[in-house]
Amino acid sequence: MTEAAVCPVHQDRDHPLRPPVGFQEAVSDGPVRMLWPNGVEAWMVSSYAGVRQVLSDPRFSTRKGGQPEMRTDAGEAVLDPDQPGNINGIDGPEHMRLRRPLSRGFMVKRMNELRPRIQQIVDEHLDVMEAKGAPADLVASLCLPLPSLVIAELLGVPPEHQELFQATAGDLFGKNGSKDEYLAHATKLAEVLAPIVAAKKAAGTNDDMIGLMANDTDFSMDELIFLCIGLLAAGHETTSNFLGLFTLHLFEQPDQLEVLRRDPGRADVVVEELLRYTVGHLGGPGLTRRATEDVEVDGVLIRAGEWVSVSLMANLDEALCPRADELDLERDAVSHLGFGFGPHQCLGANLARAELQIGLRTLFERFPNLRPAVPVTEMRYRNDMITYGAAEIPVVW
Amino acid sequence: MTVRIDQERCIGSGQCVLAAPDVFDQSDDDGIGLVLIAEPPAELLPGVRDAVDRCPAQVVTLDE
């Protein structure tokens, strides 16, 4: 393999719901070398089979340190590779030790038990939105508070810390902050969480996630605190963006919105297709791994020590489904990569599914005439975040 | 037709339960996947194949 031209990774979009300009063209022809904003070069893999391989083959490590980063703070990794409790930075048995107790907390039947409470939170927030009257900001009215309240209850953190958690979770995903700023945000969260974790340990209870981790595992205090920060941050920042982006895609494709309106009972299948399509259209950089041995991916030899990033644009690969670049809510669910793949696949996937299914279904049942108050292209988007989404979604009904 | 889960490598994602709820469950102790019906009847096989495909840890197998 000769050295291909190295393209810079960027996230400039000419339409807020489409991949960054030129990205699809740059990465579609097999693994290519790309230069990241922090100056690190990595292979970019974007085929469906290639992404599944990289994310599930144990010869690709997720251990961090000097990895490609979107943060502009050149070269400086914000996290120590040995940070205790960094579940996304360890492999094999070490990873399983942390992952298994958490999987128990997020298992399917537990998430199903949460559904009535999720429905209640959605109903209450839509009641308030309706009472205040149009126009409303959907992000502030539903998208942000829903996952934020649910993850806090699941973890068992008192409601008075909600605002701090929500604001700080956002700060942790900023693209422009320095390492010192990142660590200051993490420290602020740790200071609030430490006494909560200590109290659950003293009480010996396991009826919420923190209690379960504190009392049914051998996790150290440092691990517990960092895992809580990770769960809070992930719980706040991801589902909220997706609920908003789903709604915007549906506004832009009224024929598809009609499919959901006609049969709200299909919300589970609809959410899978929206996950596939939305994550595919985020484009840009995805998850990073490092080869520990020479491995061939999509016909290209990746050498031991080289970085690989996978683009979840693989969700638009025709190998996954026909007309993969189209949103088709009548299609059966396919094995998309919206939650990643491999042993590090999103831990909260089943919680996110429940929130997105109930949130989306109820939103359009309650407000069948919901529509954007300004054109989708004129709304504000969070281009300064690692996790992309709309900052505001003004709606009328 | 035998369904198996390699429990050593299972991460407890529950994808198999979503794909074929009659065939799979998760352990209350650690969330690890359990096979409820090791020799499922033909009508449950599409769901089992879906589980094999979707399992992020690639630990569900169907010996045909």
Automatic annotation (TrEMBL), chain A:
InterPro entries: Cyt_P450 (IPR001128), Cyt_P450_B (IPR002397), Cyt_P450_CS (IPR017972), Cyt_P450_sf (IPR036396)
Protein family (similarity comment): Belongs to the cytochrome P450 family.
Protein name: Cytochrome P450
Entry annotated with the keyword NAD: no
Sorted UniProt keywords: Heme, Iron, Metal-binding, Monooxygenase, Oxidoreductase
SUPFAM superfamilies per record: Cytochrome P450 (SSF48264)
Lineage: Bacteria, Bacillati, Actinomycetota, Actinomycetes, Pseudonocardiales
Organism this protein belongs to: Lentzea albida
Domain of life (superkingdom): Bacteria
Gene Ontology MF: a single term: oxidoreductase activity, acting on paired donors, with incorporation or reduction of molecular oxygen
Region (Disordered): 59-92
Gene3D superfamilies for this protein: Cytochrome P450
From TrEMBL, chain B:
Cofactor dependence: [3Fe-4S] cluster
Domain 4Fe-4S ferredoxin-type per the UniProt entry, residue ranges: 1-29
Function, as annotated: Ferredoxins are iron-sulfur proteins that transfer electrons in a wide variety of metabolic reactions.
Keyword Iron-sulfur: yes
Annotated keywords: 3Fe-4S, Electron transport, Iron, Iron-sulfur, Metal-binding, Transport
Signal peptide: none
Protein name (database record): Ferredoxin
UniProt keyword annotation of Iron present: yes
Domain of life, source organism: Bacteria
Organism whose genome encodes this protein: Lentzea albida
Gene3D superfamilies found in the cross-reference section: 3.30.70.20
Stored Pfam families: Fer4_15
GO MF terms held by the record: 3 iron, 4 sulfur cluster binding; electron transfer activity; iron ion binding
